[in-house]
From TrEMBL:
<dbReference type="InterPro" id="IPR050570">
    <property type="entry name" value="Cell_wall_metabolism_enzyme"/>
</dbReference>
<dbReference type="InterPro" id="IPR011055">
    <property type="entry name" value="Dup_hybrid_motif"/>
</dbReference>
<dbReference type="Pfam" id="PF01551">
    <property type="entry name" value="Peptidase_M23"/>
</dbReference>
<dbReference type="InterPro" id="IPR016047">
    <property type="entry name" value="M23ase_b-sheet_dom"/>
</dbReference>
<feature type="domain" description="M23ase beta-sheet core">
    <location>
        <begin position="87"/>
        <end position="186"/>
    </location>
</feature>
<keyword id="KW-0732">Signal</keyword>
<dbReference type="GO" id="GO:0004222">
    <property type="term" value="F:metalloendopeptidase activity"/>
</dbReference>
<protein>
    <submittedName>
        <fullName>Peptidase M23</fullName>
    </submittedName>
</protein>
Length: 221
């Protein structure tokens, strides 16, 4: 697929660039994370948004295939050591709760649900798109519960339409407010949910099925 031909509408309503967006590092290499109580969402929230405030940016971004240290905060990711899920399959856009989220392309609502639980997605929406004879899916996680009331399976969504809002904690899975945005070629039989993090052992499979979300987000720094 030639992603450059899609002419996507900005997912956050405006282009993400170095003027309004700060690249954030949540990898295991970031020693500053060792000083943060990641199990305390308020402390984690302060860590994220103090960086944005100091930089004068509205958004923070990053995470595709990042080996992250932040998943030790939740049992959602706790498995055997060789299968511990810490490789991020989407891109996170960190911003204030309530920020509107827009459909980058026309599509239909494939599925949705509230993936409740500490460290999970919270309210989640998945759209199905068809372009250039290809079908692919976009996932939006950590949304508001009020958004759930406006979704309807199979409903056509126009390009540029507001589809959701960034949720506050704890209803967003108890994370500092952000959008988890992810692309998938194949839903693999799943509905309302799809792994947003995988283990090192699974990287080859999931990276092939989940292309870089920046192909649509278009962030440039």
């Amino acid at each position: 697929m030639n992603w450059n031909e899609l002419d996507c509408f900005p997912v956050m309503g405006e282009a993400l660039n170095s003027e309004n967006t700060l690249r954030l590092d949540f990898s295991a290499k970031n020693q500053a994370l060792e000083k943060v109580d990641l199990s305390n969402t308020e402390a984690f929230d302060q860590f994220v948004f103090s960086q944005l405030e100091r930089s004068g940016k509205r958004f923070g971004i990053g995470g595709y295939l990042e080996n992250r240290a932040i998943y030790r905060r939740s049992n959602v990711f706790a498995t055997d050591a060789e299968d511990f899920r810490n490789i991020h399959l989407g891109v996170d856009v960190w911003c204030e709760a309530g920020a509107p989220i827009f459909s980058p392309l026309e599509g239909r609502i494939h599925s949705f649900q509230d993936n409740a639980g500490f460290g999970d997605y919270g309210p989640t929406l998945i759209l199905e798109h068809s372009s250039q004879d290809k079908v692919f899916y976009s996932l939006y996680g950590h949304l508001t519960r009020t958004d759930l009331k406006s979704w309807e399976l199979g409903k056509i969504v126009k390009k540029g339409a507001i589809i959701a809002h960034v949720g506050p904690f704890p209803e967003n899975g108890d994370w500092p407010p952000h959008l988890h945005f992810q692309l998938m070629w194949d839903m693999e039989g799943k509905s309302g949910d799809y792994p947003g993090v995988c283990s090192q052992r699974e990287v080859a499979h999931y990276s092939a099925n989940c292309p870089d979300p920046n192909l649509i987000l278009g962030f440039q720094d």
